[in-house]
From TrEMBL:
GO MF terms held by the record: structural constituent of ribosome
Lineage: Bacteria, Pseudomonadati, Pseudomonadota, Betaproteobacteria, Candidatus Accumulibacter
Species this protein is from: Candidatus Accumulibacter phosphatis
Biological process, per Gene Ontology: translation
InterPro entries: Ribo_uL30_ferredoxin-like_sf, Ribosomal_uL30_bac-type, Ribosomal_uL30_ferredoxin-like
Quaternary assembly: Part of the 50S ribosomal subunit.
GO cellular component: cytosolic large ribosomal subunit
Family, as annotated: Belongs to the universal ribosomal protein uL30 family.
Protein name per UniProt: Large ribosomal subunit protein uL30
């Protein structure tokens, strides 16, 4: 299961969000609106996604 990937897309702007949420989005490899990154489906990545779930969309 460690080779399974998820695609994360930034769908809402980070303007006006908490500083640690902005850092989490950057840690996921997302920069601009509608940018995407494919990451391994690990508990650490899932925790980051849960923290900023109102800003991102997860596929796969």
């Amino acid at each position: 299961m460690a080779d399974k990937k998820i695609k994360i897309t930034l769908v809402k702007s980070i303007i006006g969000t908490k500083q640690d949420h902005r850092a989490t989005v950057r840690g996921l490899g997302l920069r601009k609106l509608n940018s995407s990154s494919e990451l391994l489906d690990t508990p650490a990545v899932r925790g980051m996604v849960n923290k900023v779930q109102y800003l991102v969309k997860v596929e796969g």
